[in-house]
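INTERNAL AUDIT FORM
Audit reference: QA-55
Scope: verify that the stored structure record matches its stored sequence.
Auditor: D.O.
Record contents follow.
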Amino acid sequence: MVQVSTGIAYECDVLVVGGGIVGLSTAYAITRSAPGTRVVVLEKEAGPARHQTGRNSGVIHSGIYYRPGSLKARYAARGAAEMVKFCAEYGIAHAVTGKLIVATERSELPRLHGLVQRGRENGIPVRELGATQIAEYEPEVEGLAAIHVGTTGVCDFVGVARQLAEASGAEIRYGAEVRRIDRRPELGVAVLTGAGDVVRARVLVNCAGLHCDEVARLTGDEPGMRIVPFRGEYYSLARPELVRGLVYPVPDPTFPFLGVHLTRGIDGGVHIGPNAVPALAREGYDWGTVRPRELAATLAWPGSWQIARRHWRYGTGELRRSVSRRAFTAAVRRLLPAVTADDLVPSAAGVRAQAVLRDGTLVDDFLIREGARAVHVLNAPSPAATASLPIGREVARRALETLRSA
């Protein structure tokens, strides 16, 4: 048992667990808001942004998809503008490309119109396009109708994370996996790392992403949810000249996933994906990565079975696209008819840390909860990278309030 002892100096005021973009943005916001606050970030990998931050499609989301008034809607729209400004200030690769959301079936047209209304409610300018107008933006894309969202872009989120780490002035400890946490409400927290180091702090901030629920329980707080990992598989397009910018399908409103889309990145290449299939480990980036303890914990959570029961038909389609390149190609051809299976080159996958409640509800907004001497970020998948600067400020605000009241 790690213990906090009276009379022993604290290594820091705030200890952040997790060196992804949200954890590093939080450290950056704390030191900007309260200069002189001592911040340590513990990251189990050898560098920053090795998981969700570094394995997504690099899109700066506009905020058009999200429920008006939700944290996602507010923070994505605000965060997109701030992210572009941050990248410009620090010379980080980025581009504001705009994107198309394309309806390819008549049944999607009402949902497309709903996105127009939602965009207006969220203060996001959109242009409605008929079938023939799509070619103005994407000559190879076909659809019945589309909307153009001009504020969407792409950037190097790993570069952003590195810059946040440097600019924060925090002490970043890599290779520091959290093994145990002793929290004493009257004293603070002590964290034992895999290297055998003990770090004592007055307040802990949990930004552990794929492992955030585990860290919450180590702290002694029951988060009321579990992370159920979903792997997103990507391909690169062998003929990137087929796509000029970003092209998305109309999303299924019952899922927090946006569907297989086309993204021209800052390197000029085009990524296609992701799908969404269950991962057999929290860091299960392929079917061969299985961690029995983690898989058993996922299967033991009642919400996992509720998801399977409610959404088996959707999941079957995603699994089919995972094991069949032909099926994946067919999904892409709905948007880009010229593509062939030979155009798809396997690329690195990502895993989404999706919070699921006991009743099977997929948490559809950012989720931040507080405990004694602790702040937990319990759901921060896409668009968290886009929204990382305002998320970081909100988490920092809560951490500093906790610190002042300690």
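Auditor finding: record pair retrieved intact. The CA atoms of residues 379 and 385 lie 12 Å apart.
Action required: none
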